[in-house]
Write a sequence for this structure.
């Protein structure tokens, strides 16, 4: 992470005397068997906290290209390809890029180019950008860190023995330039678009697909006005319109239409998971009370202010298909 120069037989091969960010410098050399070579490294410590590490690895030249070529040769022979990819993360292991590291994206694109169906399994604990390859694959499954039974669980999902019903607890951006990106940001003049990109995420908070489809209908409030410490109920009908048993996670978000302090544009306040057979309809019910409408004022006290609140229900924070207004009064 500081300056360095690398010499071989007094010939300067790599000259990086100025401190820069993490990078890889490559120089081709030809070595003869049974011949000795003088290796010299010079190190320049620019800030007093530097260090240098010299690593020697044999047979790395074009190894990635060889392995990708071998993978493509296998991919052509099968009906469906499953690529397991992932990220490196941990304490003091922050990522400067959210894309897949190494040659994983090149592998995905090379196998996709065969024309054979391809499913990508992503292992990791945080968001991953996919704009360079997502349009080339048939499916993506985020498996997080699934544990010792993860293989059996993933196989059951891939073969259709189980129906996926997970939902994202974070927002996946299209690119790092959109960060920070959260669904419940404050209404601080933030626009929804860049001049060269949509401001929408790749996958929003609460997102998740299923092997079936669900329809939302008949939003009903038991009362239009919530008073004091009372509770009202909100009901919605959910129908499985597909042909497979599946779970749907119904999510209720609330927005304070006018408040004394800036509050999020929407906040998840409740969710409910229901299992439905093909063609089956269930009524899902949520309770709303004053604490769900409250904010913390400048004095540090929690209170619900009188006014109108927008109630929004849907399968994720972006697709809020049913909406209605509720008035709160002390």
């Amino acid at each position: 992470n500081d300056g360095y120069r690398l010499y071989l037989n007094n010939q300067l091969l790599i000259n990086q005397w100025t401190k820069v960010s993490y990078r890889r410098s490559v120089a081709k050399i030809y070595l003869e068997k049974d011949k000795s070579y003088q290796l010299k490294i010079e190190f320049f410590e620019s800030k007093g906290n530097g260090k240098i590490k010299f690593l020697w690895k044999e047979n790395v030249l074009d190894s990635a290209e060889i392995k990708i070529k071998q993978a493509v040769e296998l991919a052509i022979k099968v009906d469906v390809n499953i690529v397991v990819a992932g990220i490196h993360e941990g304490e003091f292991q922050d990522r400067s890029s959210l894309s897949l590291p190494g040659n994983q994206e090149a592998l995905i694109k090379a196998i996709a180019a065969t024309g054979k169906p391809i499913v990508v399994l992503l292992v990791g604990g945080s968001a991953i950008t996919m704009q360079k390859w997502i349009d080339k694959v048939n499916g993506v499954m985020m498996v997080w860190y699934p544990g010792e039974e993860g293989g059996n669980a993933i196989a059951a999902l891939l073969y259709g023995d189980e129906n996926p019903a997970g939902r994202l607890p974070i927002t996946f951006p299209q690119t790092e330039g959109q960060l920070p990106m959260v669904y419940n940001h404050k209404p601080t003049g933030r626009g929804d678009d860049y001049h060269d990109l949509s401001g929408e995420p790749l996958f929003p908070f609460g997102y998740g697909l299923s092997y079936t489809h669900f329809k939302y209908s008949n939003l009903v409030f038991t009362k239009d006005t919530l008073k004091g410490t009372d509770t009202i109920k909100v009901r919605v009908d959910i129908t499985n319109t597909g042909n497979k048993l599946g779970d749907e996670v119904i999510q209720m978000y609330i927005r304070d239409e006018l408040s004394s302090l800036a509050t999020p544009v929407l906040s998840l306040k409740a969710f409910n998971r229901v299992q439905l057979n093909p063609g089956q309809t269930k009524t899902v019910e949520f309770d709303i009370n004053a604490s769900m409408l409250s904010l913390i004022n400048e004095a540090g006290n929690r209170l619900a202010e009188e006014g109108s609140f927008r109630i929004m229900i849907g399968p994720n924070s972006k697709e809020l298909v049913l909406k209605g207004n509720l008035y709160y009064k002390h």
About this structure: The chain has a mean pLDDT of 92. The longest strand covers residues 246-256. The longest helix spans residues 63-75.
